[in-house]
Amino acid sequence: MYAADRKLFFSRDGIVDQKQFVSDLAVLRQQLQGAGSLCNLFQDRYQFALGIVSGLLNKQPIVLPPSLAPEAVRAAMAQSPDPVILSNSPEHDALATRVSYDNIAAAPLDHWDYATPLQGNSTQIRVYSSGSTKQPKCNVKTWKMLRGGAAITDQIIQGLDALPTEIGLLGTTPHGHMYGLEATIFATLGFGHCTYRNTIFYPADLEAAVEAASDCGISKLVLVTSPAHLRFLEQAILAAPEIICVLSATAPFPQPLAQKLAARKNLKVMEIYGSTETGSMALRQTAFEEPWTLSAGFELRDTPETCLAIAPHLSEPIPLEDQIKRHPDGRFSLLGRAGDMVSIRGKRSRLAALNAILSEISEISDGVFLHDKRHESDALAIAVVPHQDSSLSEDEIRRLLRRHLLRHLDAAFVPKKLLFLSEIPRSPTGKITRATTLDLLKIAGLKTDLKAQGTN
Fold it and tell me: Of 20, 27, 87, 179, which is the most buried if we count CB atoms within 10 A?
């Protein structure tokens, strides 16, 4: 295991090393004695990691709700025995017994190994899907499964021109969702990579994280993020030579943006493919290639109905929700999800392809196609967010957008319904939930065809 002084987490308050982690772990485990299960809502990544390991070692199932909304938390805990909420927010007091984090000095310990006892640990960690295509779904994970998913982050870090001990991880994505959980929390717990405690939202947050890293003696940084967050952080990343790698997931990475970032000296840009069910399973350098390369240990197996993802850390083969094309060299390309097909007047396209073309329009800060599946001919609308300092009128943006789309798409896929919004309501992972899509369709004046949706 790691040495007592191995750096695990950092912030402007300094470094948390292996010794402090294990000491604080002993205190929190004692506080949680008697709890039947844990609902981990800690927003500080260090405190969150302590909650994860405490629950695993205490054999208390851990619940990670799909959001912090009280009803989402309540629903996620509904099947959990005697739950205790890990949170520093009094607003959660009404939901269950709450334990906050208190930095109490622990008695000195003579060992620093927390990971070895976890190797065969089967305690459940219940992670929820994003709900972008349906209601959030609970997926049961274990230490072995989540560490296995984090191996792809370790694989990328090992391939960088730096010693792993020189590198710090920064995260914009929520650590309670699958991607952030694997790429930051379990990259630290399972592989010893040092992670920034706070979540980054704005350029000023990124600048503060870079400064904190420098103060802690961390000279090179890997940013774990998503396309939704990159829209706001692009210039800050380009201006920070300390960031030597960008990892993106949760939504298709627009190739023009990947190419722009990759053009900066000493910046590697990687995209990760996976799902809540499979975890992170493949990667590519989006600026230069389209096919995906499987992470070490993964293999694909075709069946008459679907394609299965298989890996030593998964408890069973997992059917992929995406349709793929296999290549002779072992790589694969994504063709889209089964429910991703848009059919209008006998013509077909993929929703992901439409959104990729929309993302190329620099005159908007965000945009998305809204799709309503119908029995005969689907309906489409578009929601866009103009730049705050834009001098263009809505009519000018409408004409510009239409010209761009018609250069790349059949007119059937260029809708007349166009919503101008100040912000597109995205989840913390940058996705748009199905419920939000339905609300926006209603605003656009398109009634949803529930019978047609029920057939998919």
Answer: 179
